[in-house]
Design brief:
455 residues, alpha/beta, binds ligand F0G
Length: 455
């Protein structure tokens, strides 16, 4: 098989400053060994997130120049709305400045004390916005999702029996059912079309709408095409339409599968919900034809949505992460398999068995990747989830490090470089030490905590 090459060539470049080991050691010490405190200029390969970090195309930059900044009724809005509805045929499309703004608006209307919102796995901003209203966020992902070696094709699926049970037992508390595609918090694993359709049928039988968190909808549709029986001959665009046809609305971060650097939307069919959302939008984001965005952002999203369903792109996109995943596996680095759509998740607890969870093996690995290679990744483990509201600590379910791949930004040689750095870190894994937290806030500590390596 020939190499699956980047299906684009490079017109504008951003230089990467190649730091030295000594420089990075000094930068780490100054940053309290927290990679969120490192300046992006001091990073060689930045895999912190795939959100808002895409390279825009010539078409998108052209669209930016066409952007119209009228306060009301901008043609940019109508191009944006048409591009969304080409893929997701919802009656009302309400722009927001990013995904969490759409979530905040939705849950300010349907949330509240006593309410329960099920999903496969809520992303942390979704959970946060639900809990901020006093409602409860419940994760009902299938059991396979919890086993990093289970090779099931759709580990993002919602457990349909548990969903049915929840709706039967406490249906009056549930305003809607959510599904996150792909399931970011569960390793970027996809949800099958059959699962989306059956979850919708169950929700509808109980009189509840299904709302899809569609951040990585195109990657999810590509996995459906590649893995779901009967879907292989279909176009990604048709699969995307089917995914959203089954649903009653969606939240979206255009910073992911729309190749935009900012933006999002809330889309629904329900007229009453839409009217309430627009009123809330005017209060918090802006007039309904721009949300929190400039007209040029809306045009960049419209162009990005046309490009994201390109199957050559999606083949290359998913292959990039598989490629890194295969090489890490060959090096004996344990990862979550199958590899997800937007990221490779490394199992730091298994990679560094000599570091107990409360000494943060994920943080230790993330720091080592920066120290030895200038790679910035993100701990998703005990640092992120281990602190309880009463101030005590418990190990997270897993200690993972996420290597999230920005879209169209890095080449295969960057991927090879990442693997080489892992090879070096793997050789010295027994030398890696745990970490101690020196200072931390009471909430969302991973962003600002300071660490010290244990001796
Ligand atoms: N839903 C999912 C599944 C997400 O992954 C994110 C963001 C959001 C909602 C919120 O969107 O950032 O535009 O407000 N995920 C980023 C990440 C931050 O790094 O995974 P937003």
């Amino acid at each position: 098989m020939r190499t699956i090459i980047e299906p684009f060539r490079i017109k504008v470049v951003e230089p990467i400053r190649l730091t030295t080991l000594d420089e990075r050691r000094a930068l780490l010490a100054a940053a309290g060994h927290n990679l969120f405190a490192i300046h992006a200029d001091d990073v060689i390969v930045d895999l912190l997130t795939d959100s808002g970090t895409s390279a825009m195309s010539a078409e998108q930059w052209g669209a930016v120049m066409r952007g119209d900044e009228s306060y009301a009724g901008s043609p940019s809005f109508y191009r944006f709305e048409a591009a969304v509805r080409e893929l997701m045929p919802f009656r009302h499309v309400i722009p927001t400045h990013q995904g969490r703004a759409a979530e905040a608006i939705l849950f300010s209307i349907v949330g509240g004390p006593g309410k329960v919102i099920p999903s496969n796995t809520h992303f942390d901003t979704t959970r946060g916005n639900i809990e901020a209203t006093g409602a409860e966020a419940v994760d009902l992902v299938v059991a396979a999702a919890h086993d990093p070696d289970d090779l099931s094709p759709f580990k993002g699926n919602i457990d349909l029996d548990r969903l049915e049970r929840l709706l039967t037992e406490q249906g009056e508390r549930v305003p809607l059912v959510m599904l996150t595609v792909t399931n970011n918090a569960g390793g970027g694993q996809p949800v099958s079309l059959a699962n989306i359709r059956t979850a919708a049928a169950i929700a509808h039988r109980h009189g509840k709408p299904l709302i899809i968190d569609g951040c990585r909808f195109a990657e999810n549709a590509w996995f459906i095409k590649c893995r779901e029986p009967g879907q292989e001959g279909r176009s990604v665009k048709d699969i995307v339409r089917d995914m959203f046809d089954a649903a009653d609305g969606m939240t979206m971060s255009a910073k992911k599968d729309a190749f935009a650097n900012i933006g999002g939307w809330l889309a629904v069919n329900d007229d009453t919900l839409a009217a309430a959302a627009r009123n809330r939008l005017i209060l918090t984001e802006g007039f309904p034809t721009y949300g929190g965005l400039a007209g040029r952002d809306l045009d960049a999203i419209a162009a990005g949505l046309r490009e994201i369903v390109d199957e050559q792109y999606l083949r290359y996109r998913v292959r990039t992460n598989e490629y890194i995943g295969e090489k890490l596996t060959a090096l004996g680095v344990p990862i979550v398999r199958p590899v997800g759509g937007h990221a490779v998740f490394v199992d730091a607890r298994r990679f560094l068995p000599h570091i107990p969870p409360l000494q943060y093996p994920g943080q230790s690995l993330a720091v080592a990747l920066y120290e030895h290679g200038g790679i910035r990744a993100c701990e998703i483990g005990t640092v992120m989830f281990g602190l309880r509201p009463d101030g005590t600590e418990v190990p997270a379910e897993m200690d993972l490090v996420r290597l999230a791949m920005p879209r169209r930004v890095y080449t295969q040689s960057h991927a090879d470089y990442v693997v080489e750095v892992f090879e070096e870190v793997a050789k010295r894994r027994s030398e890696l030490r745990g970490m101690r937290i020196v200072s931390q806030p009471r909430q969302l500590r991973h962003f600002t905590a300071r660490f010290e390596p244990l001796s």
